[in-house]
Design a protein that fits this description.
Chain B: One of its GO terms (molecular function) is protein phosphatase regulator activity. The complex is a heterodimer of chains A (100) and B (447). The radius of gyration of chain A is 24 Å and the shape is flat. With 100 residues, chain A is mainly alpha-helical. Chain A is built from four helices and no strands. Chain B has 447 residues and is mainly β. Chain B has a domain of 307 residues: Methylamine Dehydrogenase, Chain H, CATH 2.130.10. In chain B, the strands form nine sheets. Chain B has a four-stranded antiparallel sheet, with no helix packed on it. The chains are: A mainly alpha (100), B mainly beta (447). Chains A and B meet through helix 2 and helix 3 of A and strand 5, strand 7, helix 1 and helix 2 of B.
């Protein structure tokens, strides 16, 4: 009976999980939990701080970039977006090809 | 699987395909929603560019009894535009998340369309007459010299080429902090609900400056957030009943007569999970991407990543039927997580008699499950099957081992070709299937 149990195939989901953990050993403790949900709620967020932007423009020395605390699970990045960086969002003036 | 022939099996044939042929798909052309109206005469699509295209079925031609009327473009308009919320530094996409039709009350047609933040009520009306014979104006609109007017006449309406106009009649804005995933019109035809990740609001179709919050699952401390609302729908007959699904695979049924804020559900539908089967992926693949009541109102259907489940509203502890859409993907979850496909939100739909359910898959495949015969079929939306009245050939995916002729192996599937949106005509066997940027219409072979 022991050998039978050893020969039992690993369920495919578990095998896939092992593969993922091997690739990303630091993957979060909470599967599909907070981090992933927070990212979902954050969709569309484009960070812009006018204070930092103006200071960067004035090229002030010793300017401190905003840093994310260790408990923050939000990604802000260390690049201060400028109006020129943001892609131009213009509405489609072209008719849908479904109507063509 | 469903073979050809045999009694009542439907034989699906290609009817039409809309959209561009080229492989280079502009983001704006990605179809994001498909919906028939209540009679099935009109078919609406929404896309990522915020545009709505409505097709109308041709009146049946009595001499051509072997085909049903074709769907041709009826109206197209820009429903939503991209916006930027400066206060919150939030980019608001113009993508149309959902379209829902109102039942027809008069000559005009009405639909609700929504993006992430704003719902709009659109009126689509026909104009086929125009006044002619003004006294003070020429036919082209220029004003006549009043001194040349010697007689008086009564202007009359004369027929003109049909013009279809769409105009926004109501704009329901500023009620959602999070992204709207669902809208659903109540059976009272006066109110509707809109649901975002954490809240559900109730609106009156006539009133835009006020809405009532009926569900709020936002935790006091966002760090405690464990689940979000993924879909919501009103019951087709009971105007005080609605359901909402979650990212944890549960469905809650709420009764608005119980309290103003329906945070406490009346029923909780959840299938118990075998703890020994739990993995990193369990919660993600159990997330419900769509919930739809049957036309009868007795059942509801949910779609999660790998399956479709039918629930009897009288039984909360497990679904009455479960259909596997693409079980062979269970051994590919690692790569599907890495390429984000595991987060794809597939929709599902019922046929008019609630006997067959349909949902999409990858490689432009879509699946149908016959609840009575327990047979299923896999079909493909492809321009290669372009001949009208030729029956579509069933497809089969080979999970492992030796691939038979005409089967396709899991590793050959194109995961960029996803069918997320499908719709079934309310009365006939006509279906609309959306690939990334094309809309396919199939119908059953009539004799």
């Amino acid at each position: 009976q022991d050998t039978q149990e050893k020969d039992k195939a690993v369920p495919p989901e578990r095998a896939e999980e092992a593969k993922l953990k091997a690739k990303y050993p630091n993957l979060g403790q909470k599967p599909g939990g907070s981090d992933f949900l927070m990212k979902r709620l954050q969709k569309g967020q484009k960070y812009f701080d006018s204070g930092d932007y103006n200071m960067a423009k004035a090229k002030m020395k010793n300017k401190q970039l905003p840093s994310a605390g260790p408990d923050k699970n939000l990604v802000t990045g260390d690049h201060i977006p400028t109006p020129q960086d943001l892609p131009q969002r213009k509405s489609s003036l072209v008719t849908s090809k479904l109507a063509g | 699987f469903l073979g050809a022939g045999g009694g009542n099996d439907i034989q699906w044939c290609f009817s039409q395909v809309k959209g561009a042929v080229d492989d280079d798909v502009a983001e704006a052309d990605i179809i994001s929603t498909v919906e028939f109206n209540h009679s099935g005469e009109l078919l609406a699509t929404g896309d990522k560019g915020g545009r709505v295209v409505i097709f109308q079925q041709e009146q049946e031609n009595k001499t051509q009894s072997h085909t049903r009327g074709e769907y041709n473009v009826y109206s197209t308009f820009q429903s939503h535009e991209p916006e930027f919320d400066y206060l919150k530094s939030l980019e608001i996409e113009e993508k149309i998340n959902k379209i829902r039709w109102l039942p027809q009350k008069n000559a005009a047609q009405f639909l609700l369309s929504t993006n992430d933040k704003t719902i709009k009520l659109w009126k689509i009306s026909e104009r086929d007459k125009r006044p002619e014979g003004y006294n003070l104006k020429e036919e082209d609109g220029r004003y006549r010299d009043p001194t040349t007017v010697t007689t008086l006449r009564v202007p009359v309406f004369r027929p003109m080429d049909l013009m279809v106009e769409a105009s926004p009649r109501r704009i329901f804005a500023n009620a959602h902090t999070y992204h709207i995933n669902s809208i659903s019109i109540n059976s009272d035809y006066e109110t509707y609900l809109s649901a975002d990740d954490l809240r559900i609001n109730l609106w009156h179709l006539e009133i835009t400056d006020r809405s009532f919050n009926i569900v709020d699952i936002k935790p006091a401390n966002m760090e405690e957030l464990t689940e979000v609302i993924t879909a919501a729908e009103f019951h087709p007959n009971s105007c005080s009943t609605f359901v909402y699904s979650s990212s944890k695979g549960t469905i809650r049924l709420c009764d608005m007569r119980a309290s103003a804020l329906c945070d406490r559900h009346s029923k909780l539908f959840e299938e118990p999970e075998d703890p020994s089967n739990r993995s990193f992926f369990s919660e993600i693949i159990s997330s419900i991407s769509d919930v739809k009541f049957s036309h009868s109102g007795r059942y509801m259907m949910t779609r999660d990543y790998l399956s479709v489940k039918i629930w009897d509203l009288n039984m909360e502890n497990r679904p009455v039927e479960t259909y596997q859409v693409h079980e062979y993907l269970r051994s590919k979850l690692c790569s599907l997580y890495e390429n984000d496909c595991i987060f794809d939100k597939f929709e599902c739909c019922w046929n008019g008699s609630d006997s067959i359910v349909m949902t999409g898959s990858y490689n432009n495949f879509f699946r149908m499950f016959d609840r009575n015969t327990k047979r299923d079929i896999t079909l493909e939306a492809s321009r290669e099957n372009n001949k009208p009245r030729t029956v579509l050939k069933p497809r089969k995916v080979c999970a492992s081992g030796k691939r038979k002729k005409d089967e396709i192996s899991v590793d050959s599937l194109d995961f960029n070709k996803k069918i997320l949106h499908t719709a079934w005509h309310p009365k006939e066997n006509i279906i609309a299937v959306a690939t990334t940027n094309n809309l396919y219409i199939f119908q059953d072979k009539m004799n």
